[in-house]
Design a protein that fits this description.
8 helices; WbqC; WbqC-like protein family protein
Length: about 230
């Protein structure tokens, strides 16, 4: 079975995003879509003693029709500022000393010009840390039609995929009949049932960046992914 994931890139996404990647055989980055402000493309949340806090990459928005992969980063200092914020808020985490050098090196070398490249850089390094195979393609490689669902079907067919993996929210807009007609099974990933871990600052929050899990659990972080627990 050839399982295909088609997803827009996110900045340091939550653990569910990495479960989707781990469940797939091919991950297609869907970044030739319109960039939307205030979304997960260039920001994510961390935990602090005062509650949740956004880390946001400053980007240039020059057009309403600007694509994600056309979006440029507008500061060459955001990466070091984000590292300082992470260091201040996670220095008390159980595994901070264990992973500090790894995370710091991620940010020191996050100097890519385009947002998509920044996101893929982080995804690549974080997947390696979590022991996740990372077979990545770009949606710009494919000739895509206008219909939203047909685009996904065509990418799956081009990659000889017989299963399409998606987050549960896609049920709202997806035309599953098009997948059935193409003999492609649709699997909506279940985000429920994640175990809690020794997170700093209550109450527990599942939806924060994967870096929260890494700072608190270190090398054991991969065992808190649902797909990793199934592989044991």
């Amino acid at each position: 079975m050839n399982k295909i994931l088609i997803l827009q890139s996110n900045y340091i996404p939550w653990k569910g995003y990495f479960d989707l990647i781990n469940a797939s055989d091919v991950f297609v980055v869907y970044d030739d879509m319109q960039y939307t402000k205030g979304d997960w493309r260039n920001r994510n949340m961390i935990k602090t003693d005062k509650g949740l806090k956004w880390l946001t990459i400053p980007v240039e928005k020059i057009s309403l029709h600007q694509k994600i992969n056309e979006t440029k980063v507008v500061s060459n200092k955001w990466n070091l500022a984000h590292w300082e914020t992470l260091k201040q808020n996670y220095k008390g985490a159980k595994c901070f000393a264990e992973v500090k050098d790894f995370v710091q090196s991620l940010y020191v070398n996050a100097t890519q010009e385009y947002l998509t490249d920044v996101n893929i850089y982080f995804l690549d390094k974080l997947c390696d840390f979590l022991d996740i195979d990372f077979n990545i393609r770009s949606s710009k490689e494919f000739n895509l039609v206008e219909d939203r669902t047909q685009r996904l079907v065509d990418i799956c067919k081009n990659l000889n995929g017989n299963e399409y993996i998606s987050g549960p929210a896609a049920r709202v807009y997806m035309n599953e009949d098009l997948f059935k007609e193409a003999d492609i099974n649709v699997h909506f990933f279940d985000y429920s049932g994640y175990p809690e871990y020794a997170q700093l600052h209550s109450p527990f929050e599942h939806g924060v960046t994967i870096l929260d899990l890494i700072f608190n659990e270190g090398a054991n972080a991969k065992n808190f992914l649902k797909t990793k627990s199934l592989q044991k």
